[in-house]
Amino acid sequence: MKEFDLRQVFEPKKKSRVNPYLVGSLVTVAIAALGAAYAAMVKFLMNVAFSREEPKPVTRVKRMISASEKHHDVVLDLETAAKKLEEEGGCEEIKITSRDGIDLVAHYRRCPSPKRIIIAMHGWRASWSRDFGTVADEWYEGGCDVVYCEQRGQNNSGGENMSFGILEREDCLEWVRWAIGSIPGELPIYLAGVSMGASTVLMATGLDLPDRVHGVLADCGFTSPDAIWKHVMQDNLHMFYDSALYKQLCKQRIGVDPGEYSTTDILSRNNIPVFFAHGTDDSFVPVSMTYENYKACRAPKRLFIVPGAEHGLSHYVDPEGYHRALFDFFAEFDGVTPQPRIKSPAEIAAAEAEEKAAAAAAATPEDGTAGADDAGAEHAGAETAPEEPESMAEDAGNEAGKTAEKAVEADETEEKAGRKPVESAKKAGNEAGNTAEKAGTTAGEKVSGAADASAAEKKAGQKKQ
After folding, report:
1. How far, in Å, are 376, 386, 438, 444 from residue 448 at the CA level?
2. Nearest in space to 75 (alpha carbons), one of 30, 18, 134, 123
3. Are 167 and 254 a contacting pair, CB within 8 Å?
4. Is 62:45 a contact under the CB 8 Å cutoff?
């Protein structure tokens, strides 16, 4: 029988040696795997955020992103209102082309006695009829012609990507221009938006909008693309948010840096009145973002907060209060033309640089005979005088041509801003005429001076003889 050795119990066993290289390799592999998984998740979420084509499992992800579970009866009411607007609204389909060549679609609903025009922009992965279905009849009965726009990258409009208001703001301006050119009369225009559509119309106030735009209606808009992505990633998805990475990926996808666009920065220079609305229980775009926008806005502003309302449901929860507040806003600003917006420092510097360049290009070249104060120099000047009229005429023609080019550029700039180019062209044409007239007068004076100098020289020669 084998004896039992107590030392096997009380003496500690020798520890096995661990290969540090193996551990390091395992850690490296684990980190690489986590990095690859995070990169794959980021790519997936970028497709969810921007791409026209929704990834297959996007339905559940969208609920996680918005952190909202709308009740069945609410969803049913919204779908019923959307169907009614589509089938019974009598809307006319409109098509235009965006500034960057994308086909855009809208639905124009006329009312019997219009008092104003609304350009309505829907939200992210939504539709024109769903976002505005519950308010459509109130607008119609309240004297509003409405252009229900389909945002780029969604539904029937062209484009492969959405851009969270950055590119859509330019589309909004194009729809304003369409309304001015196609709808008779001089009715005031309002820009309305829900969610991403609200941020779109708020960002549009940073453009040179026509004077016909009297106000903005912003329901549950965010403050910037970066801010809403950060909120969704950290608060709703509980994931790490790398701002620099997302901005880089966004720039690769849509060609612009999202960090350069913020509604709060734009609103700090805005003079167009804004009606802000938001629900306190919004978990997708927190109500705090509307408070930030409201605080930043320097224009006349009104704030309507609905207790208990989730994302985009302020009107649904309190239709009477919403209607009253909104139409009070219309009554206050229908007859008020807003002041021009305040230019940003970068815009001011660019304008000053353009003015200096234009002034330098328009400057008439001075006479090149400076310093010729002796008789020989005067004689030389008199001999070359006959050639000066042609030179001066050529300068006048060149100067007039430059001024005419400025007129064309001014027309294009005014046309892009939605204003009539007639006054700009007339002004530039007058400048061209004045420049040519001035150059011609100068040339005549020089010819006259040259003739006098020649006569004096000839007389002096006769006396000498």
Report:
1. 19, 10, 15, 6
2. 134
3. yes
4. no
50, 51, 56, 58: CA torsion to nearest 10: 20
Angle at Cα 103 formed by Cα 98 and Cα 105, nearest 5°? 100
Neighbours of 238 (CB within 10 A): 8
60-333 has which CATH code? 3.40.50.1820
Would strands 301-306 and 274-279 be described as parallel, antiparallel, or unpaired?
Answer: parallel
CA distance 137 to 111: 10
With H, G, I as helix, E, B as strand and everything else as coil, classify residue 104.
strand
Pairing between strand 274-279 and 92-97? unpaired
Q: What is the mean pLDDT of residues 136-148?
A: 98
d(CA 43, CA 49): 10
CA-closest candidate to residue 127, choices 74, 62, 59, 197: 197
Pair 233, 240: CB distance under 8 Å: yes
Closest by CA position to 237, among listed 286, 288, 290, 284: 284
| Tokens read off for 50 | 């921007």
Dig out the tokens for 103 from the structure: 């086909």
Cβ atoms 131, 123 nearer than 8 A: yes
pLDDT, one tens digit per residue, over 265-299 is 999 999 999 999 999 999 999 999 999 999 999 99
Sign, CA torsion 396/402/408/413: negative
pLDDT band at residue 74 using 50, 70 and 90 as cut-offs = very high
Q: Name 275's bridge partners.
A: 217, 302
User: CA-to-CA distance for 114 and 370, rounded, in angstroms?
Assistant: 69
